[in-house]
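INFO batch 0412 | record 1 of 1 | parsing
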Amino acid sequence: MMGDFSFNMNYENRDKLLGISGEWIFKRGSGSIRRFDFIDVSILKQLIENKFIDPIESHNSSPSIEQIYGFMARFPHVMAKGYVTSPLRIDYRVSLDALFVPKKHITQQLKQDFIAFCVKADELETDEYLYAWWD
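INFO prediction complete | emitting tokens
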């Protein structure tokens, strides 16, 4: 949901921070969004501080960016991923739609809190690793 948040429109810096490259073209569909690989809490903090991501935004039924940041700050091994929209779109943004924790970093407390935090996820995996995805 788009509000009164004023996004930093310097998409070159945003994309560099997220490891995204390539020229944006003006069209709808797959060419107007790009997925990025998992980021850690330090990258998310930079996205927030530089106004590349709206802290109150959430992807469908996911927790807000602010809530995800708090969870990742508490559990620094949690990684997030998502997508960015083209700077040519009216809904320019960064969205997070998944969280992940590798097996080697899972503690009982983290697993318990991850399950509770991701209760509304469309997909939730907790056997070999922790993974939540919101459609």
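INFO post-check: Residues 103 and 128 are 6 Å apart (CA to CA).
INFO record closed
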